[in-house]
What we know:
With 493 residues, the chain is an alpha/beta fold. It has helices at residues 3-21, 48-51, 64-70, 85-99, 110-113, 123-138, 165-169, 182-190, 216-238, 240-243, 263-286, 291-297, 306-312, 342-346, 373-386, 410-428, 471-480; strands at 28-29, 41-45, 103-107, 142-146, 175-177, 246-258, 318-331, 348-351, 391-395, 400-401, 433-439, 453-454, 458-460, 467-469, 485-486. 39% of the residues lie in helices and 15% in strands. Helix 4 runs parallel beside helix 6 and helix 16 (410-428) packs parallel to helix 17.
Amino acid sequence: MEKKQKKLLCFALFLLLHFSALAFSAPAYSRLDFPQPPDFVFGSGTSAYQYEGAAFEDGRTPSIWDTFTHAAKMHGQTGDIACDGYHKYKEDVQLMVETGLEAYRFSISWSRLIPGGRGPVNPKGVEYYNNLINELVKHGIQPHVILTHIDIPQALEDEYDGWLCRKIFGDRVKHWTSVNEGNIFAVGGYDQGIIPPQRCSSPFGFNCTKGDSTTEPYIAAHHILLAHASVAKLYRKKYQGKQHGFIGMNLYVFSFRPYTNTTEDVLATQRANEFFHGWIINPLVHGDYPEIMKKRAGNRLPAFTKLESEEVKGSFDFVGLNYYNFISVKHKSGNLEIERDFEADMGAQFVLEQGGGVLPDVSPEGSLPVAPEGLVLIMEYINHSYGNVPIYVHENGQRTLRDKVTVNDTSRVEYVQGYIGAVLDVLRSGSNLKGYFYWSFMDLFELLDGYDSSYGLYFVDLDDLKRYPKLSANWYANFLKGESRSLDGGVAV
């Protein structure tokens, strides 16, 4: 076995043992135990299509999600109205003030800002985002803006330098995320075909009419990385010196653990980490894809030119992680000579078991297991593999089914208090963690579930769109106001 492989195997075994023995060092905590803004922020978030509504108002044109949902891909549900945040943003910012949010993460709809993706800027779109940002800044809430949240099919013309919004909003917005969940967009949209633009090929994916699952996920992710690097280069050259902001990229992460302690499962877990996470982080940190990806995907994985590698490497001020759950991983054998997609190249099988898995409905309420040690482990993995890079936990939240929704959401309280305790452990271990954002601020149109599930701190009545605080909103607000919280659910005295 090669020296590097032995090193990785030893580290993976360490994580497996650590997972079973991990105990939190903070039985009780308060906001005062964490670094204060601007060194560390607590917030929450939404995204444009999931929150804004007003899909056909004031010059907005359809995005790929409008096309997808109006083709009845989400059980007839759409984001046409969603939470009507386009009209209700002021009252929602007031709820953020009452909750005590220090930061709010949201995305810009390019269909609203630049209808069709090119041509003149829509003044009504500029007005809406200016008003939202001003409202946040007025109340001391730090805006964190996502430029692409899986909802832009068209390229912007060169005259806008690719990303116009920095010119318009950059005097008040200091935190920019170029792409949300680039790895999920590539796999879900171009291999499995379960999200827009719904491209895949047989025998892979789900009922697609066009696409190539063997190559397109790799091509899509490659272009995402190059686009991000171009955006970061432009920002640093023209705006960062004046605006003193930060730019980063976001990916969806799992805490992978071996299904057994066999060498095969441990190595499969390492491959899962390098394919799923290293696919994005490795180029950002080292300028190239992981060696195991290049070996197993071969020439289907695009290669960076020397110049591209130099531009991608280091093109970030932070990395954003969306983390919800852990997954057990088994080795999956396969012939490397036959036609394969991303999953087959990875050679790993994700095991759906009670207490963890891809599908979150592991309880009668459809809720995720509360396993905050998984967040600690994925942070340890990234720090060990890529250095102590600045990180934001951009999304982390508890799912419940809407038909069982209640404002007395004890499972969500248990989830968030466990994970904030894990955040404190991560900080105390020396990690360069910069913030935690609960997903989501209110019940939204969920991109995989529509209105069938909810993650919000606030319940939204779909009939009259009124907002109601859940128990979790009160818990989060009291925590942010400095109350000491214990990991058994009580208030420490």
